[in-house]
Amino acid sequence: MQEDSALRQEAARRATEEQIQAQRRQTEREKAEIERETIRVRAMAEAEGRAHEAKLAEDVNRRILVDRANAEREKWVAAINTTFDHIGGGFRAILTDQNKLVVAVGGVTALAAGIYTTREGARVVWSYVDRILGQPSLIRESSRGKYPWSGFFSRAMSTLSKGANGGSATKSEKGFGDVILHPSLEKRIQQLANATANTKSHQAPFRNMLFYGPPGTGKTMVARELARRSGLDYALMTGGDVAPLGSQAVTKIHQLFDWSKKSRKGLLLFIDEADAFLCERNKTYMSEAQRSALNALLFRTGDQSKDIVLALATNRPGDLDSAVADRIDEVIEFPLPGEGERFKLIKLYLERYIAQAGERKPGFFSSLFKKQQQKIEIKGLTDDILREAAARTEGFSGREIAKLMASVQAAVYGSEDCVLDPNLFHEVVDYKVAEHQQRKKLAAAEGDK
Do the beta carbons of residue 393 and residue 216 sit within 8 Å? Predict the structure, then answer.
């Protein structure tokens, strides 16, 4: 009985302790919950207080800005009113006083006459300077400035940059930039550029050139790059500009060659569409003015020159006059690009028209006033797809491939998501290939007629 009583007492004691512990844990949980609720309420109250303070500060700032704007507006209105009052008072004084009116009218008349005389005199003087020193009107494009002092700073900076690079940048460059040529043709052009540069350094006479081939094969771009790599200036004219000159054509041709001889570095004169006025002189449709212009050019190119390289470009070399052909030392054919060249051209214009589309040089004003263009996203366009397009564009010139990629860019910008995927690329290629075939059929039909 004593043992049972002791066990019961021990069990009662344990139960009491457990109940006390449970009560204590319950109390601690309630205390923690109360603390969390207190922290939450305090945080909400602080947030509401900060929001209220920000709103009050915003209202105060708005009132300050409104008051300042009103004060500025009132100040400008008062200044404008004062100015117009002074102007009105002056006009009233002039109109009411006959002597002042006569003086004012005379002064305005003298000022207008002076401005007109100065403007017309400057125009006459400038036209004389332009005729004596300016660039001939036949020149479409030139690396030389329009006047002798044009581009002096840019040329000086270019010379300094070349000096900093050791002067070997021209010799170390490879390729022809935007022109993708067959390796054999590129090698020949490079040899011709080196030979022309050495000819200038040794004061030997230059060799004249004839570039012929289908349109858009890079003849003009190669001429420009050839002049740059040879260390020469270049000037570009087109044969179609000579015929409209009529009786003035001979004078303009002589002015052109006189201007070309003034280049200190030597000048590559590139005549595009040379067959337009250098065709056979026995043609019945050739006017007397065109025949005289051709004779003037033949006269100026009769001897080998140490100052001018004559480079002609034509799609029909057989139409050139025999005397013109006799003055040509180097004849270079520019064929249509092969499959490998077309693949390189597609990659080149894909990078320019698609990958780099929308990019512009960073600048404060450009970023401030110009809207940023949307970038084109390229998805799934692999080299195999580009090689397939190169194989399908058989007969395309370099210019046609550039137009093809420009059409791809337009198609991408016309889509909703501005994404270039293989499906869209194939769609544009199919359309341009069909267009090329149709153009060939039309040309063949006109040839049969």
Answer: no
3-state secondary structure of 212: strand
Distance CA 198, CA 37 (A): 91
**Nearest to 227, CA basis, from 219, 235, 218:** 235
Token pair of 401 as six digits:
């491939």
From first CA to last CA, the distance across the chain in angstroms is 138
Closest to 211 in 3D by CA, of 226, 231, 200, 194: 226
- CA 449 vs. chain centroid, Å, equals 42
Question: Please, are residues 229 and 195 in contact by the beta-carbon 8 Å criterion?
Answer: no
Q: Check if the beta carbon of residue 388 is closer than 8 Å to that of residue 330.
A: no
Would you call 121 exposed, middle or buried from its count of C-beta atoms within 10 A (0-12, 13-18, 19+)? Answer: exposed
Cα(291)–Cα(215) distance, rounded to whole angstroms? 26
User: Sheet containing 308-314: which strands, arranged edge to edge?
Assistant: 141-142, 233-238, 267-272, 308-314, 209-212, 330-333
> How does pLDDT run across 26-73, given as a tens digit for each residue?
999 999 999 999 999 999 999 988 888 888 888 888 899 999 999 999
pTM: 0.64
Q: Which residues contact 314 (CB under 8 A, 6 or more apart)?
A: 210, 211, 212, 273, 274, 275, 320
Distance CA 182, CA 192 (A): 15
The candidate with the shortest Cα–Cα distance to 150, out of 132, 126, 133, is: 133
For CA atoms 383, 385, 389, 392, the dihedral sign is: positive
DSSP letters spanning 288-338: HHHHHHHHHHHHHTSS--SSEEEEEEES-GGGB-HHHHHT--EEEE-PPP-
CB 328 within 8 A of CB 207: no
The torsion defined by the Cα of 406, 379, 382 and 395, in degrees rounded to 10, comes to: -20
Helix (H), strand (E) at residue 378? strand 377-378
pLDDT of residue 264: 85
